[in-house]
């Protein structure tokens, strides 16, 4: 009986040893697998949606170390995360591939942003998914001399090509052909071009972004005034109706008479009677030099003596870049003189 008991104990002991060995094997195998929230990189685990080793396919922690909205992902982080060893993808099999919104460099591939959608990606960066449209280079404020060229530029990044542009001045669209490019170029030949500019850029999807507002300032050169004929209109409404030089005769910088050289196509002097010109001859003047006219003269838009009245005094002008700006007017209307020497 004693021999039989010992024999049975030997069998139980062998069985126990076998069970123990299997237990050790299972535990060892389990220890080989990464934890449930480990990324694909060898740098460690992460419970955040963005880490140095990638993240889950929807921007949150991966549910398992291998699955990421695909059948099999090896070495790729999930979309929405950022990984130094590559981001995950929606491809069927990805080995070291870039993710749909993450960024990073995969083994054998270059740094990329965007998701690879191919069936098999090995060591390749993900395809670009497109960043938000934004201004990469803003236009800058400028100050230029009168009659000089000026240029505003803008550049954008992200969005979907092609882009369209619309420039604005003081809140209104620039309607010239140059108002629909990435740059706006013009000549400061009129003070009316001084103001605040901006540009709105749209991409192919209709997304839009507007640049900062910038100012164009126009500086008067310190050049003198040429000798010769200076003019204005006897009909003060003519330039308003037809658009000739309104910013010079009566603009934001004051009241002026201008040299005939401004009539570059000789349109006004050629039809002086029709245009209603009144002109005077002055000697050459240095910058800020002075010239005067008697109030006995009719000077439209500055003072307008009427028949039957006598005027005394003078109008004093100052030279500003081939234009004469009124700086004082001492004209006084005298007595009514009709029938007795009216003017």
UniProtKB/TrEMBL annotation:
It comes from Bdellovibrio svalbardensis. Transmembrane segments: none annotated. Residues 62-72 have a biased composition (Polar residues). Residues 1-33 form the signal peptide. The keyword Signal applies. Residues 43-121 are annotated as: Disordered. SUPFAM superfamilies: Immunoglobulin (SSF48726). InterPro entries: Ig-like_dom_sf, Ig-like_fold. It comes from the Bacteria. This is Immunoglobulin domain-containing protein. Residues 43-61, 84-93 have a biased composition (Low complexity). Residues 74-83, 94-121 have a biased composition (Gly residues). Keywords: Signal. Coiled coil: none annotated.
